[in-house]
Amino acid sequence: MRIIIGLKEGWLFYKGLGDVAAARENGEEVVLPHSWNAKDGQDGGNDYFRGDCLYVKKIAKKDLPVSEKYFLELRGANSSATVYLNGKELATHHGGYSTWRVDLTETLEEENELAIVVNNAPNDFVYPQMADFTFYGGLYRAVNVICVPATHFDLEYYGAPGIAVTPTIEGENANVEVETFVTDLGESDEVEIQLLDKAGKVVASGKGDKKQTLTIENVHRWNGRKDPYLYTAKAKIVRGGEAIDEVSARFGCRTFEIDPERGFILNGEEYPLRGVSRHQDRWGVGNALLPEHHEEDIDLICEVGATTIRLAHYQHDQYFYDLCDERGLVIWAEIPYISKHMPAGRENTITQMKELVAQNYNHPSIVVWGLSNEISIGGADEDLLENHYELNKLVHGMDKTRLTTVACVSMCSMDDEYAHISDVVSWNHYFGWYGGNTSMNGPWFDEFHKKYPSKPVGVSEYGCEALNWHTSDPKQGDYTEEYQAYYHEELIKQLFTRKYLWATHVWNMFDFGADARAEGGENGQNHKGLVTFDRKYKKDSFYAYKAWLSDDPFVHLCGKRYIDRVEDVTKVTVYSNQPEVELFANGKSLGKKTSAEHFFYFDVPNVGETELVAVAGEYKDESKIRKVDTFNEAYRLKEEGAVLNWFDISTPAGRFSLNDTLEDIMSTFRGKLWFAKIGLKLKKALAGDKKGGPKKAAGFDVNEGMMKMMGGFTVLRLTSMLGAMNVKFTKEELLKMNKQLNRIKKPKGMK
After folding, report:
1. Which of 96, 195, 208, 370 has a beta carbon 3.0–4.6 Å from 79's, enabling a disulfide?
2. For 277, what's the count of Cα atoms within 13 Å in the CB-facing half-sphere?
3. pLDDT, tens digit, for every residue of 170-194?
4. Lowest pLDDT segment from 84-88, 346-350, 445-449, 686-690
């Protein structure tokens, strides 16, 4: 029978070294899982170490069970790795997020030196290479030795488990096809299969061929979060009445479909997929997560009430997929084919897709395979399109039970051929954060749905950033917790009321490492999470979703970190999934309110210090506010290195400034004249080619939708973002522009 030995301890780590022969001293002792970018991949500067690193471990054969075959199993080595045993190179693997195995048998001696060179340096053939997250290097998941007899369930096919379970429901029963993959099966050997229920009772069994179909009568369905019931398939190779190898796989019996009008349908009933996306890293750990980290993540996702997770942008740990099966989350699984198509990387997309599907085939939680994310951000050429057709065909050849999807970005036209290759499609839209305004989101999807009524469409990303900054007048781009809460309130109302959307996924459940980022006042992170990077603080927007999605009764007072307030009357927001909320200020009731949208707003007199208590039925929450004469500058973002901060700009009442949106300014005649006179830099960046060629911005096609999106930026934010395109503005130029705008009156009624 197979025995799995974990290789967790006893490793020597050599940073920056790829020469096995040179690794004799000065190694650092490490315990797996391990990433060498756990700190420098999260502190900003885009300067985290990317290159060769070496892991070395001594293994004595006497410490391993006596066996006929020995395989090394690596569950995650990012992003390329080469295995050496006793100085001999055995195998190289490209792709940092999947399981792969190496046969050690012929090279294994009595005393052994195992060496693994791991590399996360940039190249043009392994995905990902361009993306908004840190590519942590390391042996960041488990490394094992699997000991098996010569006849065993296959260990060399794309890291797969050697067993594939395909249930098909017919009436009250399920016909379960169990296919096993066996190496060196003898003529007298048999494969014995048992299907067990949740309690461990055998409900069906068979013996004989490698592929068998068994029937579960009165099948108990896997029914999402309502009832995530799991069966187990056990397969044994039997020789002379004795089992010589065994594998097992949990599985669920369910039906699903994705309808362009009704959305996601599970077991014949509409089951709205409303949830989040998840990256696999956390503060101070990188991507070298322990089981307790995965468990905390799934607990928080379940607490918010999500029914679905988009596991972005790569294959996640098998343990997390197992947790999703157990907790009933419906999953989008994808490969890291992201942002930039690399012609030399096509083979790598094929390999990573084969690994994703083969290794995760048995998980009932997974319903769609993601082909790519934002890959057409620079346009879709023939090579890119051809690769997607090939991937789509590959997936359907490997798995006839699930659908394919892609995540398009706003710059991608809804008419683009790329958006219509997969079975279903979703879009990454950030109207209200990266330009545009929040009201543009729902109507955009209505337009797509009207134009392509038979194509299921969803939302793969939407969100905005929030840190510990605060204001009573939230504005797009201010990074305050209050604007993030407002943004998500608006998006919830638009997206959750459109049942044709097959799935919606917030970007992101947790803040995550993105070492190239330098914004929001804390470099090296993307702060769009509903929960902070360390998982210690749930932002107010977390509770906005909980109010809509969770059945667990609660009430939440927003703004707990925003105590000092200058206004005489301040707005206080309460979230609850209860029908009525009453707010008390220093023990005095400010009244009861009802809200079908689960968002309750109260005007609170701000005098001295006020203890607030929100009550909804038997549930309550508390906070406090305090009247101050001047705004507490600790609440205000001051962008480090910024040429000009928004609060340093003069904003006369009734006049425009750099803090107004380009769209509002251009809605006036004098605003258009101003835009025509501000110089070549901004005009060229936005207007692009005047010779009839396609307009461009940062290399992207500028269509009508993108122009609308850019119109939603304030002029200051737009000039700041153009800095990334090397279109620089000095402080003097910006102040001159602001002075010009101050001379232009706003239309009546415009704030």
Report:
1. 96
2. 26
3. 999 999 999 999 999 999 999 999 9
4. 686-690
pLDDT value at position 689? 46
Residue with tokens 């023990």: 587
Task: List the end-to-end C-alpha distance of the chain, in Å, as a whole number.
Answer: 74
Q: What's residue 682's pLDDT?
A: 58
Cα gap 443→462, rounded to integer Å: 15
Check: CB of residue 131 under 8 Å from CB of residue 313. Answer: yes
DSSP assignment of 614-665, as one string?
EEETTEEEEEEEEE-SS--GGGS---TT-SS-GGGS---TTB--TTSBHHHH
Band of residue 707 on the pLDDT scale cut at 50, 70, 90: low
- Based on the domain organization, do 488 and 536 belong to the same domain? yes
Q: What is the band of 477 on the pLDDT scale with cuts at 50, 70, 90?
A: confident
Angle made by CA atoms 628, 631, 634, in degrees to the nearest 5: 110
Q: How many Cβ atoms from other residues are within 10 Å of residue 182's Cβ?
A: 18
- Kindly state whether residue 557 falls inside one of the protein's structural domains: no
Q: Which residues contact 48 (CB under 8 A, 6 or more apart)?
A: 37, 40, 41, 134, 515
CATH code assigned at 221: 2.60.40.10
pLDDT of 649 higher than 90: no
Are 238 and 361 within one domain? Answer: no
**Beta pairing, strands 52-60 & 111-119:** antiparallel
Using CB atoms within 10 A of its CB, is residue 63 exposed (0-12), middle (13-18) or buried (19+)?
exposed
Token digits of residue 322: 């197992």
135, 122, 118, 140: which is closest to 18 by C-alpha?
Answer: 118
Task: Assign residue 22 the CATH number of its domain.
Answer: 2.60.120.260
Quote the domain boundaries for residue 61.
3-148
Type of residue numbered 503: A
Distances (CA, A) of 510 to 227, 332, 361, 576: 26, 17, 27, 22
The helices-and-strands tally (H runs, E runs) of the chain is 13, 46
Report the b/e string of 76-88 with b at 16+ CB within 10 A: bbbbbbbbbbeee
Number of domains in the chain: 5
Q: Are residues 529 and 391 in the same domain?
A: yes
Q: How confident is the model at residue 566 (pLDDT cuts 50, 70, 90)?
A: very high
Q: Give per-residue pLDDT as tens, 484-513.
A: 999 999 999 999 999 999 999 999 999 999
pTM: 0.92
Estimate to the nearest angstrom the gap between the alpha carbon of 151 and the chain centroid.
40
Q: Is residue 647 pLDDT above 90, yes or no? A: no
Is 153 a member of any domain? no
- What is the average pLDDT score of the chain? 93
β pairing state of 28-30 and 308-311 = unpaired
d(CA 136, CA 115): 20
Q: Is 751 exposed, middle or buried (0-12, 13-18, 19+ CB in 10 A)?
A: exposed
Question: Whole-angstrom Cα distance, residue 8 to residue 18?
Answer: 21
Q: Where does the pLDDT of residue 87 fall: very low under 50, low under 70, confident under 90, or very high at 90 and above? A: very high
Domain end position, chosen among 118, 148, 178:
148
684 or 302, higher pLDDT: 302
Residue 348 lies in a domain: yes
CA dist 35 and 48 (Å) reads 12
pLDDT recorded at residue 705: 56
Known catalytic residues are 374
**Is residue 313 reached through a cis peptide bond, with omega within 30 degrees of 0 on the bond before it?**
yes
What confidence score (pLDDT) does residue 699 get?
A: 43
Residue by residue, what is the 3-state secondary structure of 452-496?
Answer: CCCCCEEEEECCCCCCCCCCCCCCCCCCCHHHHHHHHHHHHHHHC
Residues 501 and 609 in one domain: no
Distance CA(561)–CA(559), nearest Å, equals 5
Statement to judge: residues 417 and 400 lie in one domain? yes
20, two tokens? 């096995």
> Could you give the CA distance from residue 635 to residue 470 in angstroms, rounded to a whole number?
5
Which residue, of 514, 532, 552, is where some domain finishes? 552
